[in-house]
Amino acid sequence: xxxxxxxxxxxxxxxxKEKNPFNIPLAELFMYFALAAIxxxxxxxIIAYVYASVQMDLTEIRVPNIFHANTVIILSSSLLxxxxxxxxxxxxxxxxxxxxxxxxxLGIIFIFFQIIGWMELFQSGVTMQESPSGAYLYLISGLHLxxxxxxxxxxxxxxxxxxxxxxxxxxxxxxxxxxxxxxxxKLLSMYWHFIGILWLGIYFFFIILNITVA
Length: 214
What we know:
- It is a single chain.
- By secondary structure, the chain is an all-alpha fold.
- It is about 80% helix and about 0% strand.
- The protein is built from seven helices and no strands.
- Helix 2 (about 25-55) packs parallel to helix 7 (about 180-210).
- About 25% of the residues are buried.
């Protein structure tokens, strides 16, 4: 079964590559464009913040300690997704489903911690109306949170599908012979790792800009 699914996966990948002049599957090419657009969006916001800092002499704000915890969480989630890739290759679907679900759980924790961080900022008097620095921090971290949520949705769906394949022979046969399982996981991994790297960039950006850390 493994040899058959691998041959089908190779054939599917070859066929998809032949359908565009870049020799890259169309879905993967779209993902590259999407990630580039996301990167440009956040780069533009950071440049705008730097410009505002120079022109308006923005006041420093205290970055909540829970943001440090979120940095550890996002790195851990990427590591779990790497582990999931190994389980998928070995067709250990129960473990694969668990790794996806664990990554999803860390994503939800990240969102929860982010909201707590915003509450701490708000309680300390940092609001979007009264603090331009706070407005940028809320906006940039808020947009990133939306992208985290956007990754949690396919994580949950793929975890459920992998778990279902482990509970039924027919579903396992369908799942194991579907070449798209590798490609979908690759796209999800590209997105999730990119969003993780993006958070690291945002996190260190605010630290390097000499914003006081609580």
